[in-house]
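Explain this protein:
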Amino acid sequence: MKKYFLALLLLTSFAMNAQSRGTKIGFIDMEYILQNVPDYTEAKSQLEQKAQKWKQDIEAKKVEIAKLKDALKTEKALLTRELIEEREEEIAFQESELIDFQQKKFGPNGDLITQKAVLVKPIQDQVFTAVQDIAEAKKFDFVFDKSSDLTMLFAAKRHDISEQVIKTITRAERREQLTKKQLKDQEAKEYKEDLEDENPALAERRKALEEKKAARDKLVEDRKAANEAKKKELQDKKDAAAAEREAKKSGTVSATDKKEDNKETKDAEKTTDGTATAKEDKAAERAKTLEDRKAALEEKKKKILADREAAKKAREEKKNQPKEEPKKEE
């Protein structure tokens, strides 16, 4: 009760000073900070694994002692007084060892407490350093630990600097792994983050700008994809036209005809309602169409060759005709 009134009096005096001369008070939650520092959580997990192993050893020892007691109880009628006393001494010794082991591992000055203190100490030092830096930078007059023995009757969230302390510690850890250029970029990024923490409107503005930039980038990517698709379509048309011309020159079936034939073949394969006779008729019709096309092409080819031969023969005959001698004047 005395402690409660002392804390109340202390907070009341701080509040009066804050009203009179603008005293600035902040607080941290050490437990929350420790839970969010990666180095501490990893080391704490290892320590908890050790503690779990110690507990298992203690339980195994208890089972062993219980077995000794049961054996003595069962065989007591068959043993001499000296053997009984000897076994009782052994059981008492085992129980004494168990108590000593428990005290050594889980007592007030045991390994669990001492190793936890060793684990927390470097993190506490970092927290105290970070708190001092933040308090000097933000002009805090007092910074309390919410998880300490000091009772806090009320604390507004806006005065909680725990997140800033965590950020400061993690930043320091990252900086140790950065090059000079990366460190400079990181400091610039941290400066922007600090400005946004102090001015939420600035953070909202940055978020809106990032969303606009993302929308612009998406629009550019969509336009680029549309242009690429258009280019590909034009190139396909050019390739098809070139293949068509080449087919006509060589006297083979054109690419367009091949596509039509492929389409007809696929359509015929997909049709399931028709009978086998209809499929055969279609196949025969396609074969006849192909034969007619080939025959027409061959006929056209022969005609072109015949015309060429006739023209060539006519040129040779004209060339071999004797020239008429000019008539002499009388």
User: Anything to note?
Assistant: The chain is about 80% helix and 0% strand. Residues 237 and 321 are 52 Å apart (CA to CA).
